[in-house]
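Students often ask why we bother encoding 3D structure as a string. The short answer is that it lets us treat folding as translation between two languages. Here is a chain of 142 residues written in the first language.
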Amino acid sequence: MLLAMRAQGEPLSNEVVNNMRYTAVSFIVAFVLSLAVPASAHHSHANYAQRDWVELEGTITNVHWMNPHVWIYLEVMGESGKPVVWAMEGGSIAALTEGGWQPDSVQVGDKISARCMPLKDGSSGCLLGYLTTDEHEDKEFD
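And here it is in the second language, the structure alphabet:
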């Protein structure tokens, strides 16, 4: 209909122009919101007790150097005297590389110490803050 009206040289009515503006503004708002939602969802650390710190010592059993976050799995001696594996969430590859870390900085079998913020539910996981490697280098890992 719009093309037929323009082909005949008829001016567009205010209703048609307003409808086109509304559609364009709606599209722009929806597009901007779609960009913001993944970013805000990704950066929540609400599942961690961010005012508490846990200190762990153990042996690395697995390292996942991948985006969006690097993960280290650390076997520590649990309160019961049995080994427990902690899943520790680190920073992004970009942030860690910028901080001087490399994929081979920590490897399976390395003995390390870690300071991290534990999961609120009490399970064996935490958000990494600092790692101390065999070289006694205490560095931020987030």
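Translate back mentally: Residues 14-42 form the longest helix (29 residues). Keep this in mind for the problem set.
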